[in-house]
Model the fold of this input.
Amino acid sequence: MKFIKIFTSDIHNGIFKKCYLLILPAIMTVFICISCIARIHAYTNINDIPDFTYSVADMWLFVYGGMAQYTPTASEPFQFPAIWSAILALSSLLVLNYPTKDMLGIGSHIIVSSGSRRKWWFSKILWCTLFTILYHLVIFVVILISGIISHADLTLAIDSQLQHHIHELKPYIPLMNVSHIPVSAIFLPVLISILFNLIQLTLQLFIKPSYSFLCICIIMISSAYLMTPFLPYNYAIPLRYNWIYENGFKYVYGYPAVALIVTMVILFGLYRFKNFDIIKKEDT
Amino acid sequence: MKALLKIELNKAVKNKAFITSITIGIILAILSLIYCLSISAVDNSMASVQDSSNIIYDPEIGFSILFNNWIGGEGGSLGTAIFYYIFPILCALPYGWSYCVEQKSGYTSLIIAQTGKKTYFMAKYIATFISGGLAMIIPLITSILLSALFFPAITPYPSYDIYYAVFVKSMFSEVYYSHPFLYIFIYLCINFVFCGIITCTSMAAASFIKQKYIVTLIPFSICMILHLSMRILYTDPDKDYINLSPFMAMKPIDMSYRNSPLYIFILSLVLFAATFFITNIWEKKHEVY
Done:
């Protein structure tokens, strides 16, 4: 069996048959965008700016922004960024089911008939990447449509004061006055999301799927708590990038970091999968 | 009923997943304690500076006491941040999946033939409830006991409310400042009941979903939906809203919004009614063979 046949089967079973799952991020983003627009209107009312214009980039940053650097104090308990973590956790949750279900069902037959575990593994890697891209594409499209409906400018312009207000940032966290969001910053959260979905996929070869999701959640919250480039989810938090936050880190390092970790994850997963017992009961 | 309940409880508590869940919880409690001890060391060094400068330092009035130095009483450590984010998963891991697995394996039909549907579903519900509740409160109790080794159990002083994050308008604040152990006990009871009920949503979901690990993540998804709703609905940061998020409501301190006993009660009641109806009434009417 050729690789393209296995991949086509994954596209058919894992994307076309599961496309109803993509309604979830669409619904979620609609509500988030409504909330964003309400916050922007509140901002214009408070500051008395009747002809205020905002852009879809402002809305994008509200959805993907995450949170500013957290400094632990007794009077300010840590609060994880709800929207950011919901977006990333849902993407991990949606890709959790299919690979395991496939391996316990038709997948083992495919591996036997193709005679190659490598083809199956690479097909799942591609499927996971494609599904995550589609997931974020749906979110991007909903943001764009919400922007068009609410008469937002279709530009990458950013208003730092507005971001400060809608993210409810503390007064001592200054955002730099930036005019535009760099294009390179927009794709990094998507790449990080793909990276962690691939890590989750590889972890499933070692531990049960619910535990692998648990690990991803722990890394996610640790990254939100600690601003360090060594916790890769930080690269998915645009409010901590150095183009908008003075003490932020260079987000461009995220690209080589993602490339390196993805390569390691794929090879490590391949090595593990070659010795993986695929004839298992569904006690996962 | 008693015999089956005993078997179910044994299965619920004596399994690897329960031990794993408790272990993760206790590790996070220790992580929280390490953070509290490091902060306390800074406080003590400041006190010694005060001593040397002849400023009267009264150790009886403490910023750093037992009630704000356990995983539920402090809000600044990584341990508490992770624990209160993953608690719905930790609660469902030990036994939330049980009904789903037994249904698929055919164990349910075998046991129902011997004991009857009512007894089986009731025993399973109680065992799931207790396992979820225990998975939550065992790490919390461990945290209190560990912190009690290092921090004095001085009654909190209302003037230092910013150090305790329990304010005048906070839920049961008068109990906190008069009988702090009773306050902790009340919160442990709330945690036990809510986590028990939220774990039962896994059992209820098993009526519709056949994947064990998806069922296990249902409580987390419910909590996430409620938390996200709060973030979406509450658009004015200056308004005094009620906390809708279980991630925050389970914490005995005030996060950004005020905990409301009525909301926690109604949410628990709705979840209980829904899960009990699905597992004990709706599911009973279905063919299991």
User: Anything to note?
Assistant: The mean pLDDT of chain B is 89.
